[in-house]
């Protein structure tokens, strides 16, 4: 909430399109991080509710046994109660045990009431948080739309070259794979001569989890992201291409250094203009998916029961004409 408030203040004081893009980027990122934290909190609430309900059920069963015993004693005629087979002393002791049960029983009743109140509070908290999550998702959608509009209106980024639309169209028509297109594009456009060395510590272009190899023979990695996740440039780079390509969804090809390409595919929407030099952390796209899907059905095992379906983002690194292991550049763990 503090980050969102700061971003909104930054947004209201933005003087240039660059300032507005930066403020909206922070707004979208704050929403994503905040909603992730809220989902985690909802899972904790669901787990606590399950544990507390089990404890209440167990205590209720024990309490019912004690009450049943007392009821049977209460229905026993007094002469029978006093006529203990072991004599008057044993009868007195039995009476003392029953008397001792009363405060213990009262304590258990009090504990049960406390547990029921806590359960009610947890359920109220879950309902309130679920509504907050629903509202936050809607606000995030609005912020993403505003970000896309702001980026489309931005004209202050330096331009390294002007892309030839006909040249790109011919490449698209003649290529059959994403690799071939990226290689062909890099060979027809002026090179970015920035000095940059692989470090293995770059952040992924989007928050998510690197998936195991799918066995399809591709040289890159797949990243499972949340629906509508924001995709950003890992480092400063020249934007060589952005747009739809073959069956790979929307694709962005970045050149962070001479003869080095970052191919990022699978987005639902991309931003920017080919030839722009993008600073690190610049939004370049949004993932697809429905943010509002099953947003009110929380379980302790998953963020959403039945799924908020993860989106798949593809990341590949090419050096020269050959793909290279992305972990030489990115912190995949």
Distance between the termini: 28 Å
Shape: elongated
Total of DSSP H or I helical runs spanning 4+ residues? 6
Q: Spans of 5+ residues with little confidence (pLDDT < 50)?
A: 294-307
Strand content: 15-25%
The overall strand count is 11
Summarize the helix and strand pattern as letters. HHHHHHEEEEEEEEEEE
Structural class: alpha+beta
Q: If you compute it from the alpha carbons, what radius of gyration comes out, rounded to the nearest whole angstrom?
A: 31 Å
Mean pLDDT: 75
Helix content: 40-55%
- Largest sheet: number of strands, sense, barrel closure: 8 strands, antiparallel
Defining traits:
333 residues; 6 helices; 48% helix; elongated; 17% strand; alpha+beta; 8-stranded antiparallel β-sheet
Describe the SSE topology.
Layout: H1 2-12, H2 17-75, H3 78-82, H4 88-152, H5 165-174, H6 178-188, E1 208-210, E2 221-225, E3 230-232, E4 237-244, E5 250-257, E6 260-267, E7 269-270, E8 277-278, E9 283-286, E10 311-319, E11 322-324
Antiparallel strand pairs: 1-2, 2-10, 3-9, 4-5, 4-8, 5-6, 6-10, 7-9, 10-11
């Amino acid at each position: 909430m503090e980050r969102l408030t700061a971003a909104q203040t930054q947004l209201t004081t933005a003087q240039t399109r660059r300032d507005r893009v930066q403020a909206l980027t922070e707004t979208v990122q704050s929403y994503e991080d905040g909603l992730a934290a809220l989902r985690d909190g909802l899972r904790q609430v669901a787990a606590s509710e399950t544990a507390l309900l089990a404890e209440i059920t167990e205590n209720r069963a024990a309490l019912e046994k004690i009450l049943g015993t007392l009821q049977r004693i209460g229905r026993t005629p007094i002469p029978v109660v006093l006529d203990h087979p072991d004599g008057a002393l044993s009868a007195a002791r039995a009476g003392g045990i029953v008397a001792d049960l009363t405060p213990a029983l009262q304590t258990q009743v009090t504990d049960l009431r406390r547990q029921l109140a806590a359960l009610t509070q947890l359920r109220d908290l879950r309902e309130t948080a679920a509504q907050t999550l629903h509202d936050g998702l809607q606000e995030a959608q609005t912020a993403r739309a505003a970000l896309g509009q702001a980026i489309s209106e931005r004209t202050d980024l330096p331009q390294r070259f002007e892309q030839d639309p006909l040249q790109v169209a011919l490449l698209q028509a003649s290529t059959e794979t994403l690799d071939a297109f990226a290689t062909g594009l890099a060979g027809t456009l002026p090179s970015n001569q920035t000095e940059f060395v692989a470090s293995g510590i770059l952040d992924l272009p989007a928050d998510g989890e690197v998936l195991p190899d799918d066995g399809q023979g591709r040289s890159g990695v797949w990243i499972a992201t949340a629906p509508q996740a924001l995709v950003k440039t890992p480092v400063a780079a020249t934007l060589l291409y952005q747009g739809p390509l073959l069956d790979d969804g929307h694709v962005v090809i970045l050149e962070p250094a001479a003869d080095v390409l970052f191919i990022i595919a699978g987005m639902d929407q991309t931003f920017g203009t080919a030839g722009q030099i993008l600073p690190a952390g610049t939004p370049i796209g949004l993932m697809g998916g429905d943010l509002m899907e099953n947003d009110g059905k929380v379980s302790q095992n998953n963020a959403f029961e039945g799924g908020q379906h993860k989106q798949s983002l593809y990341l590949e690194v090419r050096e020269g004409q050959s793909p290279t292991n992305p972990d030489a550049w990115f912190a995949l763990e």
